[in-house]
Write a structure and sequence with these properties.
Structural class: alpha+beta
Helix content: 10-25%
Number of domains: 1
Radius of gyration: 13 Å
Number of strands: 7
Largest sheet: 4 strands, antiparallel
Bound molecules: zinc ion
CATH topology: NE0471 N-terminal domain-like
CATH class: Alpha Beta
Strand content: 25-35%
Shape: globular
Number of helices: 2
Order of helices and strands: EEEHEEEHE
Length: 110
């Protein structure tokens, strides 16, 4: 998916960076601040993406601007479940997807 991310790359630390951004520190030394809104928008679950066409059915205007995570759960060694203030709980984000969101929507800290 991208040159930096390897199978063994995992998030070491995930915590609030500001009132609007998540900080994600990765095992390869990279670190990013990513807007909560973008993380929520890129939720890969079947409520947000059409399973058959792969097309995103969620629209930006459907989301509250101040949407934020209320919890993070590890799903094995490959994904994080993000729980959201809009009660959305079905998003399981594979690490490679999270890394791509970091690269495309995040601010690189290290
Ligand atoms: Zn979703």
């Amino acid at each position: 998916m991208n040159a930096e991310f390897e199978k063994t790359t995992i998030p070491n630390r995930v915590e609030p960076h500001s009132t609007t951004e998540m900080r994600m520190d990765w095992s390869n030394g990279a670190s990013f601040a990513v807007p909560y809104f973008e993380l929520r928008f890129y939720c890969p679950c079947a409520n947000c993406v059409d399973e058959h066409t792969g097309k995103r059915t969620l629209k930006r205007e459907d989301l509250m601007g101040d949407v934020r995570p209320t919890g993070v759960n590890a799903i094995g060694r490959y994904a994080l479940q993000l729980l959201w203030s809009d009660k959305h709980t079905t998003g399981m984000y594979p690490f490679n997807l999270l890394y791509s969101i970091c690269l495309e929507k995040g601010l690189r800290l290290a």
